[in-house]
Amino acid sequence: MKTVCLLGSPRVRGNSAVLATRYCETAEKLGSEIQTFTLNKLSYRGCQACMTCKTKLDKCVLEDDLTHVLDAIREADVLVITTPVYFGEVSGQFKGFIDRTFSYLAADHSSRLSPGKKLVFIQTQAEADQSKFADIFPRYESAFKWYGFAETYLVRACGVYDKGEAEAREDLMRLAEETAEKVMA
Ligand SMILES: Cc1cc2nc3c(=O)[nH]c(=O)nc-3n(C[C@H](O)[C@H](O)[C@H](O)COP(=O)(O)O)c2cc1C
Known about the structure:
The chain is an alpha/beta fold. It is 35% helix and 19% strand. It has helices spanning 15-29, 52-55, 65-75, 92-100, 136-146, 170-184, and strands at 2-7, 33-38, 78-84, 118-125, 151-158. A 5-stranded parallel β-sheet has the order 2-1-3-4-5, sandwiched between helices.
C-alpha cells in the first residue's frame, strides 16, 4: 500500500499537519509506505487552461515541483490531502494543486487514474460551529469521485486556531488514528 500525503498549510507542525502526521504514523505501522510533500515548500503554477492535457499529452505540460507530486499520486493507493480553512475556502497552496489535477481527466472527461484509490481529506478551522464550511469537503470529494477514487474519508477539526490546539484534542488525534485503521483494514 502506497500513501501520498500533501500538506496544504504553510504552518510547520500546524493543526492539519499534526493530524496528517498522526494518520501517517498509524498507516505506516499498519504497513503503508508514506511519501509526504509540503506544498508550501514547492514552487508551482496553477492550471494555465492551455488544454494540452486534453489535446496533445496525457499529463500536465507544466514542468515544475508539482510534476513529481502529480506522478506520485498516479502510483499511490491512498491520497491524504490537508487544508486549513482560509476565508471560507481551502488554502491557496491547496487550490493551486487541485486545479492542476484537471490533467487527470482525458478529453472525453474520463479519468486517467487507475480506479479504486482512497482519499483522506483533513480540514482544520477556527470556527467551532460544524455547520460552517461543511460545504468544502463535498465539493472536492465530488472531483475525486470523478477521478475514480472509490472511498473517501473526512477528518475535520473545528474550533482549532493556534498551533498545538488540534494536538491537545485527544478526540481529534484519535479520529486521525481511527481513520488510518479503517483505510488500512
Ligand atoms: C489567512 C487566514 C484565513 C483564515 N480564515 C478562516 C476562516 O475563514 N474560517 C475559520 O474558521 N478559520 C480561519 N482561519 C483559521 C485557520 O483555519 C485555523 O487556524 C486552522 O486551525 C489552521 O490550520 P493549520 O494550523 O493546519 O494551518 C484563517 C487563518 C488564516 C491564516
